[in-house]
Amino acid sequence: MGVVMTDKARGQLLSMKESQRNPNKMFRIAIKAFGWGGPVLDIVQDERRDDDYYEEQEGIPFVVEQHIYNQYKNFKIDYVSNWLAKGFVVRLAGGLVRGSC
Questions:
Q1: Do residues 79 and 14 touch, judged by C-beta distance below 8 A?
Q2: Is the pLDDT score of 29 beyond 90?
Q3: Residues 88 and 9: beta-carbon distance below 8 Å
Q4: Smallest Cα–Cα separation from 45: which of 1, 12, 69?
Q5: CA-CA distance, 6 to 20, in Å (whole number)?
Q6: What is the pLDDT of residue 13?
Q7: What pLDDT does residue 21 have?
Q8: E strand or H helix at 68, and its extent?
Q9: CB within 10 Å: which end of the chain, N or C, has fewer?
Q10: Domains contained in the chain, number
């Protein structure tokens, strides 16, 4: 999948993973909507499905539907926290898409 995370995103995701009560939960990169610039992605906690692509980065498990992986392959995840926004930001090669968890 080629997930790349900033230090802030990594810290937030590890913190969320450690506080999970269900060890089967993973971080799903999912399409939330489509906009003029392409898909709007989100990161949600979910369980792995049979048709998912799975990848673990630095102890953080990620899943994405196989057809989404086949189309985009590479995701960059950041975490922002300022007076304008708070949450995860997922970038694709083609532009910026926002999501929150």
A1: no
A2: yes
A3: yes
A4: 12
A5: 21
A6: 95
A7: 84
A8: helix 66-72
A9: C
A10: 1
Please report the pLDDT score of residue 39 as a whole number.
Answer: 84
Integer angstrom CA distances of residue 13 from 1, 39, 45: 17, 22, 10
DSSP string for residues in 1-46: --EEE-HHHHHHHHHHHHH-S-TTEEEEEEEEEEETTEEEEEEEEE
Rounded CA gap, 20 and 52, in Å? 21
Which pLDDT score, from 0 to 100, does residue 2 have? 82
Joined tokens for residue 76: 């960059």
Q: Give the gyration radius of the chain's Cα atoms.
A: 13
What domain range includes position 60?
3-64+73-98
Measure the CA–CA gap between 85 and 71, rounded to whole angstroms: 28
Average pLDDT, the chain: 86
Three-state DSSP class for residue 58: coil
